[in-house]
Structures are given as C-alpha cells and as structure tokens.
Design goal:
Length: 197
C-alpha cells in the first residue's frame, strides 16, 4: 500500500487488536496495512468486520454472482483495494477467474451469461447517485433470483458500496493480493464506461 491514505496508519494493539491480527492472517494471509487506517476507530472496524462475517452466511444468491456484483461496484467507484481483494478472494474460493478478471469491462466482454450481465448492470445502477435501477431490470432479476435472492443481492451491493466508498474516501489502495498469487491482471475498464454521478 502506498502512503496515499488520508488518515494515518496506526499500530494495531491490545487484546482485540490481537484477535483482529489473527483473524486477518487467517483470512488474508497477512495483516493488511489498510486495517491500520481503520484501527483509528476500532468500534467502526469491529462493525464493518461483523457485517462482513454475517453477510458471508447469506446463501440465496450464487457466490459467483455476488463476487461479480461487488467487483462491479468497486470498479465503478474506483476502489482498487476492493477490486484487487475481490479477484484474490475469487481465486481462493474457486470461483470463475476468467469471468472475475473481465468484470471491469463486462459491457464489452462476451464471457457473461444474461443473468450475470443483469447482476452487473444492477450493481452499477445501484451505485449511481441517484440510483438508476429500472423496473424492467428489477423484474428480470426478481424472476431469475426470486424475492429472497433480489433482497440479498440488493443488500450485498449496498455493503459493497459501503466498503468501496469508505476505502476510496480514505485513500486506501490495492495491497497487491492478486499479484501475490500470480493471478493474471484484471481487464482494464474502458475509458467510455459509465461512472458514478
């Protein structure tokens, strides 16, 4: 991570800090420096980690779809940390890497199914200010995922916005998770792609 963070990186200390370090090493293989930014307010870090762990238990939507949705949000917002980590996580969870690496340019890529394209479009539409979700898109997703699935996907995308916007605002950038695993680079987002308003 570069020194572009807008809040200083501090040392993670104390009993709760030891738990955070242990959990991070188990989940990420290391303690991300970005946690040192969040450690400036341990209550917020604890809240975000709790949300992340609880949301991992949701199972009404396929993991690939949720992974692509989160990466689409990160790509649109410009959160290099979330995009890099999303690609790394997809590799570790056995998801389709040929598709995961194409998420930044999903509109021009031919690897996605119609459902996946709807999910990616929904993720971007939810991430606009104001949101640009249409009745037609929602109806297609409701038909394909059912009500529990659409509610889960919507909340998953909202959480992706929370994480991506927090990291972007705090200046937290990629820590090279994907590169450390020798994953091929992510496809570049086209300059003409939709950006958040």
């Amino acid at each position: 991570m570069t020194s572009t963070t807008r809040v200083p990186v501090v040392e993670i200390t104390g009993m709760y800090g030891a738990v955070v370090k242990w959990f991070s090493k188990r989940m990420f293989g290391k303690v991300p420096e970005s946690l040192g930014v969040a450690w400036n307010n341990p209550a917020i870090l604890k809240f975000q980690m709790s949300l992340g762990q609880r949301s991992r238990k949701w199972d009404a939507v396929d993991e690939d779809l949720k992974s692509y949705a989160h990466m689409a949000v990160a790509s649109l917002i410009g959160c290099s940390w979330c995009l890099d980590f999303g690609y790394f996580a997809a590799a570790n969870e056995g998801l389709d890497l040929s598709k995961a690496r194409e998420v930044p340019r999903w509109r021009t890529s031919d690897v996605f199914t119609p459902l996946e394209r709807d999910v990616l479009e929904y993720a971007e539409a939810m991430s606009q200010t104001p949101p640009t979700v249409t009745d037609e898109l929602s109806a297609r997703l409701l038909d394909q995922l059912g009500a529990p699935g659409l509610v889960e996907l919507t909340t998953w995308i909202a959480l992706a916005n929370l994480y991506s916007r927090t990291n972007s605002a705090l200046g937290i950038e990629s820590e090279g998770f994907a590169a450390a695993c020798d994953l091929p680079p992510l496809a570049a987002r086209p300059a003409s792609a939709v950006s958040p308003a």
